[in-house]
Design goal:
With 156 residues, the chain is an alpha+beta fold. The protein has four helices and eight strands, in the order αβααββαβββββ. This is DUF4440 domain-containing protein. It comes from Qipengyuania polymorpha.
Length: 156
Amino acid sequence: MIAVFLLTAISNPCVIGAEGHVQNEQVQAYFANQSVSIIKAAKAEDIEFLKSAVAPDAKLVRQAHIYSTHAGPEGAIEFASWFEAETYGWRYNPYRITVPASAYCLSQNVEIEFLSADRRYGTVIAFKYENGMLVEATSAGHHVEEGTMNGGSKNG
């Protein structure tokens, strides 16, 4: 068991150098912002950035009306090419907990919702990181209906 852990640690070193302790919000914000940066880079076909942020064997799955899978940094470009987004948002746990900075190197998950300019269509992407690198992303598209508590639909 220890040999497997050491082999994994040697073959997959953490790309984020951090020491001491940090707030859990900092870790969550880092991975949320990294996820958005990956999508922006994929849309811009910035393969150099993608190679530094996406594992070569990362699995990217599109679960919209057409199911498709893509792999690695090059696959990230194909993965992001099909949707248009104007804005994004993410949710996080607001409780301030001090964690070791090594938390950046643990398995981390974040969901980002991307919305079209007219806010009628959205895509939620679940990102998974290992050792600071994106190893998996799964998307699901959906229609958005917004309203007010005192009235009806805002966009329908």
